[in-house]
Specification:
Layout lengths: L1 E6 L4 H36 L2 H27 L14 H29 L6 H23 L7 H30 L4 H28 L9 H9 L4 E11 L5 E9 L5 H16 L3 E8 L13
Family: Belongs to the cation diffusion facilitator (CDF) transporter (TC 2.A.4) family. SLC30A subfamily.
Keywords: Ion transport, Membrane, Transmembrane, Transmembrane helix, Transport
Protein name: Cobalt-zinc-cadmium efflux system protein
């Protein structure tokens, strides 16, 4: 019976390259969104438009989301220490969770405000609202384009920031439509209706990001990996009779981890099995960090609490 911990660091360079792209994308988007948010808050107050103010509220959460995401990536680059053996990489997921919860809270507040406006639609300066929301749409399109150049598909943190911006873009579209309806038809109720539509879109994004980040924080199996599939691939190794006590989780987006026990037959060679197992995990499943305990079948699992799960 023996224990081995193996790493492969083949993707180190591409990961750091991706991080510098993400930092650049998040920083530029942050400057854009934060600047325009101030314009939109002033515009929303001057024109008395809830649609603009809800959009500005969403932009505030965008700016906070982008700032938090940027801070998380910077913090994640800090080296591992004796007290934080994985470094600060997990903070990216905490940031994504905070972003998701913020989106939900903002949307609930917009619902509350809109409810009061339905019964008593206030006077809105629709011309000013139209100009500001059109500029807002262009700013959001530019921010979304910048974020698309980061790895939003693989990095939950960047994706949560990207979803903030997309929701905001739709908010600007809603505000433009509401302004046009008020200009041409005098529909004061269009303003709270537009803000409710925005709130629905925001809450959907918020729930999705929160759910994904909580799954990672709860050490859930990464969505792209099937536990049974990984197990059967390891069982196909010659001289392996059993695979048990298997756990697959993520530290942060794109960093899956695995630990398991492999029981080998009498004729099995420890190092050969270990090498084959780590090659399968790396090549077929993209798992670079694995801890594998190889044990002889006839001796059973050396667990002090009886059999392993």
């Amino acid at each position: 019976m023996s224990h081995h911990h193996g790493h492969s660091h083949g993707h180190g360079h591409s990961h750091s390259h991706g991080n510098s792209n993400n930092k650049k994308a998040l920083f530029l988007s942050f400057i854009l969104i934060a600047t325009f948010m101030i314009v939109e808050v002033i515009g929303g107050i001057l024109t008395n438009s809830l649609a603009l103010l809800s959009d500005a509220g969403h932009m505030l959460s965008d700016a906070a989301a982008l700032g938090l995401s940027l801070f998380a990536i910077k913090l994640g680059e800090r080296k591992a220490s004796a007290s934080k053996t994985f470094g600060y990489k997990r903070f990216e997921i905490i940031a994504a969770a905070l972003n998701g919860i913020t989106l939900i809270v903002i949307s609930l507040y917009i619902f509350y405000e809109a409810y009061h406006r339905f019964w008593n639609p206030p006077e809105v300066l629709s011309g000013g609202m139209l100009i500001i929301s059109t500029i807002g749409l262009l700013v959001n399109i530019l921010a979304a384009w910048i974020l698309m150049r980061g790895d939003k598909d693989d990095n939950l943190n960047v994706r949560s920031a990207f979803l903030h911006v997309i929701g905001d873009m739709l908010g600007s579209v809603g505000a433009i439509i509401a302004a046009l309806l008020m200009i041409f038809f005098g529909w004061g109720i269009a303003d709270p209706i537009a803000s409710v539509i925005v709130a629905v879109l925001i809450i959907i994004s918020g729930v999705r990001v929160t759910k994904e980040s909580f799954h990672i924080l709860m050490e859930g199996t990464p969505a792209h990996l099937e536990l049974e599939q990984v197990k059967s691939a390891l069982l196909n190794i010659p001289a392996v009779s059993d695979v048990h006590d298997m756990h697959i989780w993520s530290i942060t987006s794109g960093m899956p981890m695995l630990s398991c026990h492999i029981a080998m037959k009498e004729d099995g060679i420890h190092d050969t099995i270990l090498h084959q197992a780590q090659s399968i995990l790396h090549d077929d499943f993209g798992i670079d960090h694995s801890t594998i305990q190889v044990e002889k079948l006839e001796h059973g699992c050396p667990n002090h609490h009886g059999s392993c799960n």
